[in-house]
Design goal:
This protein is an alpha/beta fold and about 325 residues long. Helix content is about 30%, strand content about 15%. A nine-stranded mixed beta sheet has the order 7-1-2-6-3-5-4-8-9, sandwiched between helices. A four-stranded parallel beta sheet has the order 10-13-11-12, with helices on one face. Helix 1 packs across helix 5. It binds threonylcarbamoyladenylate (TXA) and magnesium ion.
């Protein structure tokens, strides 16, 4: 029998949460909103369920997943917190900050979820739907962004539907996510915090909270293992730092001065607000990708604050597709 097309649950009431939690406890896949982007969730302690995430996403096995928990007490059952990690959790949890910490010896998280690493990435989301789901499931939930591997992250339930159709068991529609940019991922090396992935919490906010600058990673890699050069990619080619726009190009603008010449324009933020731009980035890339333009021209975006994460995502979206 063919699988039925997935029908999103548009009203997320107690019954919907109960159904989703039951599905997760039985090893199913549930897509749900967080404050950053939609996640594709599975019980992080269930190897088969976690394998289902990799299968549906078409995700390289070496790319570990973020494990979502209600808060620090739940995370402390899984991983070892240093004083610095505690300070960051105090400052930013619940919220869009992921901490990569050593597994406890009796950590029940599937090794597949952390791609065989000795560390686990943990985060406590603020979104009420994500929190209700965590509370009802009483399990840590592995949840990468709910998009096929390498593609643009979803910020609405309809984006998830476009990505997965019937491959997800339950889709909870909590409306558009309000940050629109994934969490910042922080690792620790020699008792110092290291930025593994820029994201919704800016480098400056983190430095301020810990009283020092973030250290550069000394590992022989740039950033998180999942940080492939080509990622977050629309089908249409991107041209970055564009000042002049060709007639066959769609334009992704930023700020009040919009270059002339494009018929199809989306402005990340007419008032040059980087927070608004981060929230709009993925949905506007999706829109422009569907416009039929030959290329998407993107104006220069400032690099401070949330601009670091926006430029990181744009650079990956523009990178050659076969590049690692
Ligand atoms: O905002 C978010 O973080 C969203 C929502 C759904 O929570 N999730 C998300 O997950 O973006 P994902 O799987 O698309 O990205 C996880 C990132 C990857 O860059 C991965 O390499 C890194 O976290 N990561 C996970 N576990 C790690 C580990 N043990 N060591 C280093 N990096 C890790
Ligand atoms: Mg992702």
């Amino acid at each position: 029998m063919d699988a039925l097309p997935l029908s999103p649950i548009r009203t997320v009431d107690n019954a919907a949460i109960f159904r989703a939690a039951q599905c997760l406890r039985q090893g199913g896949l549930v897509a749900f909103p967080t404050e950053t982007v939609y996640g594709l969730g599975a019980d992080a302690t269930n190897d088969q369920a976690v394998a289902g995430i990799f299968e549906v996403k078409g995700r390289p096995r070496f790319n570990p997943l973020i494990v979502h928990v209600l808060g620090t007490p739940e995370a402390e059952r899984l991983v070892e917190f240093s004083w610095l990690a505690e300070k960051l959790a105090e400052g930013f949890w619940p919220g869009p900050l992921t901490l990569v910490l050593p597994r406890k010896p009796d950590c029940p998280i599937s090794l597949l979820a952390s791609a065989g690493l000795e560390t686990v990435a943990v985060r406590s989301p603020t979104h009420p739907v994500a929190r209700q789901l965590l509370a009802a499931t009483s399990r840590p939930l592995a949840a990468p962004s709910a998009n096929r591997s390498g593609r643009v992250s979803p910020t609405t339930a309809d984006h998830v539907l476009q990505e997965f159709g019937e491959d997800v068991d339950v889709l909870l529609d909590g409306g558009a996510t309000w940050l629109g940019m994934e969490s910042t991922v922080i690792g620790f090396e020699c008792d110092r915090a290291v930025l593994l992935r820029p994201g919704a919490v800016s480098r400056d906010e983190i430095s301020e909270a810990i009283g020092t600058d973030l250290a550069a990673s000394t590992q022989n890699r740039t950033g998180s293992p999942g940080q492939l050069k080509s990622h977050y990619a629309p089908q249409t080619q991107l041209r970055l730092n564009a000042h002049d726009i060709a007639v066959d190009e769609a334009l992704l603008a930023f700020g009040p001065n919009v270059p002339a010449g494009a018929n199809i324009v989306r402005n990340l933020s007419a008032t040059a607000d980087l927070k608004e731009a981060a929230a709009n980035l993925f949905s506007m890339l999706r829109d422009l990708d569907r416009s039929g333009a030959a290329r998407i021209a993107v104006v220069p975006i400032p690099t401070y604050g949330l601009g670091e994460a926006i430029n990181d995502r744009l650079a990956r979206a523009a990178a050659p597709r076969n590049g690692l």
